[in-house]
Write the structure tokens for this entry.
Amino acid sequence: MKSGGKAFLALHRETTTRLAISGVLLLLVGASISAAAGLPDWYDAAWADSVTQRLLNVPDEKGKLPDVVRVLDDYRLDVRDGREETLRKRRVVHVRKGSGAGESGTHCYENFWRNVKGMTLWQIAADGAVSKADDVVKSQLGSELYDDGVLHSLMAREFSDGATLLFETEEASRLTDESCRYFPVPEDVPVGRWTCSVLHEPGVRATAAWLLDPESAPISVPPTTSEEKVTGWQLSEIPEDAEVFVVRLETDDEVRFGIRSWEDIALWYRSLAGQSLAGAPDVEAKAAELVAGCATPDDRVRTLAEYVQQSVAYVQVYLDDGGWRPHPVDETLANRFGDCKDMSMLVVGLLTDAGIESYPALTNVEDDVRVPFPARRFDHCIVAYRDSDGPLGWGFFDPTSKSTPFGSLPAQIEGKSVLVAGVTPPIGLLELPESSSGDNTASYDALVRVREDGGMEAEVVERRTGHSAFGLKAHLKELSEAKRTEWLEDRLSGRKLDAKVDSLALVGLEADSDTLELRYFLSAERWAKRAGSRLIAGPDFLSSRTAKRLDEDDDHPEFSFPFRVDTHIAVEYPEGWTVESLPDDVELGSESASYMRRSIRGDGRIEVVRSEVLNAVRPRDDELAAIREWDDAAYQADRKQVILTR
């Protein structure tokens, strides 16, 4: 789920997949469908039917007709005195394929964050029968910096083929210090008409834009209605790749609707979060104790940051101000637990007491902060500290990630926008450092001895760095020696090798090691398939693909982090055997990704050399073709086998 401040409405889908809300605990509260006296007067059946038929018969780029169409999206936002607001939302949805009780089919639902004044759902069956549904889902949010602790949903879970669904909701709340309202765009669902109107005071301007993908500039949308107290937009087409329709309210003479710049947000959060630092003698004493033996400022930063990372448990806690305000740092130190802002402010408090300039820094795990107007679209808090060697003079640290060592960042936030809160003079958005494929490596060096019955023994040295090592190192630390062996055997079985690990040695589990090394000896009773006088095998049981990395239907794939994998396997086969067939060599490359595989004949042995590199974690549209070619070529080449004959 995409995240944001109180003004943000969650993006939602009406698709042929089941409802899934990441990081959210669902509690279904009630479900009843009863006969309704009629339909709302705003529903124009004749117009809706004509639009429905048009949309249902327009195939997508793959030739598939839609299962769900949005006939009408209508929003009306009433803003009074620059603070009170009411949002009324109306929607008409038509489904080609319904969902019966207990079946997995289309679900239609509406999400909203605010105080609910009213919500209604009408269902019009294909035979014209009308029923009214009130089915509410209340959800505890999984993120920490939302303004509301509960997400509400109005959901239609059972409806017939050809049904038309009418949603009407009304929400009321007080505006925060934001000047933006975000309206969701349906993903992969055709829309007949998009209508949005804002009622506001005289002297207030309302401007709007479509937000697209991160690489594209927002598209400004001129209003179709522009009066003293009403601004409205009515559109029959939504731009390709549009994700959010955003409306901004502003005046000439005062900051009536709050935020005018990213710097405003930074100063606001420093003021709010800074209150947690007041009167913290225990933190001051702990800082002095911890840095007593530190010779340099870098040593002090590392010591204090790692102390919080390793000694404070990470939990998600909702506090006042909708989860933005951290606990007092003395309290976090005493409790030994906290959420991202609690842990980050404790690090800031310790660093400040040790003479290191530091601040809380806001970023976004789920999505990048890429709106045309400054807004509180953040869901995570980390630490920024002065570092002359860092980008633009800053170093960053995330104390919540137990497996990520000091000097690195969790892969989920690398390259994301970050706002350092409180530095004077204030600065705008920065970009977090990003690792490269050369930082996140895995290499395999193996000697395999094949037996005449198709079995084998092998000795392997596996080395990992960066994100290829961090999570694995943390996992292996928690396992006993026996469980580590079981883990390795399970990993090999996932590569179609039923192997027994005879010994396993680990080097580099200690926290200050940059490299994790695994040395293991293994044996398998059936490595190659025996077919008469032939042995047939896929020699690379260490790094070869067992599946493609990309979903063919994913138009915007993302990878966890850039990486490089290098493999060298020497296969020694029994005397009297020869190589009948080797796979063709494969090599292709681009700036986004590359792949190489070679098979080399030797005296009584074969050497397989393989290299795979990914640089584009979030490929641009112009990189997708190269990424898909790389993915397919690697998968196909890795499936090729060696044939030995006697």
User: Anything to note?
Assistant: Residues 441-645 form a domain with the Jelly Rolls fold (CATH 2.60.120.1130). The radius of gyration is 29 Å.
